[in-house]
Amino acid sequence: EAGGNLPVAFLGDSEKLSVGDFAINIGNPFGSWPTASVGIVSALGGAGVINIMPNGFIQTDASINPGNAGGPMCNIEGEVIGVNIAVIRNNRDVGFATPINVVKNTLKKIF
User: Of 10, 103, 31, 17, nearest to 60 (Cα)?
Assistant: First the structure.
């Protein structure tokens, strides 16, 4: 119903991530307003905090605002490298994203 071509986000490769890379979290909490936050990839694989996925998580200090789960985590090139899923609210507010390669593999299995 858009009446034309829509812009798309390019998917990156989460296997190329390193601790210290930039992480940009984008969201639209509760459909109210767009938000963006910038930080770094602080750990890969869950860092022992939560590790329920075989490929772990991308951990970041870039804020994941309430209601932003499902929004993209992008690299400095603007490629989607993860999908924001959770934040642990403590004195450091550590956020987590599912690596985009896990998402790609899951989509291949579904479709």
Answer: 17
Q: Give the separation between CA 74 and CA 93, rounded to whole angstroms.
A: 19
What does the pLDDT read at residue 63? 82
- CA 3, 5, 109, 95 torsion-angle sign: negative
Q: Is the dihedral of CA 52, 83, 78, 110 positive or negative?
A: positive
Q: What does the alpha-carbon distance between residue 101 and residue 111 come to, in Å, rounded to a whole number?
A: 15
Task: Report residue 87 as tokens.
Answer: 């934040």
Provide the residue type at 55 as one letter.
N
CB burial of residue 67 (10 Å; 0-12, 13-18, 19+): middle
Up-side HSE of residue 65: CA atoms within 13 Å toward CB? Answer: 18
Is 12:75 a contact under the CB 8 Å cutoff? Answer: yes
pLDDT-flagged residues of the chain (< 50):
47-48, 51, 53
How far apart are the C-alpha atoms of 50 and 33, rounded to whole Å?
Answer: 29
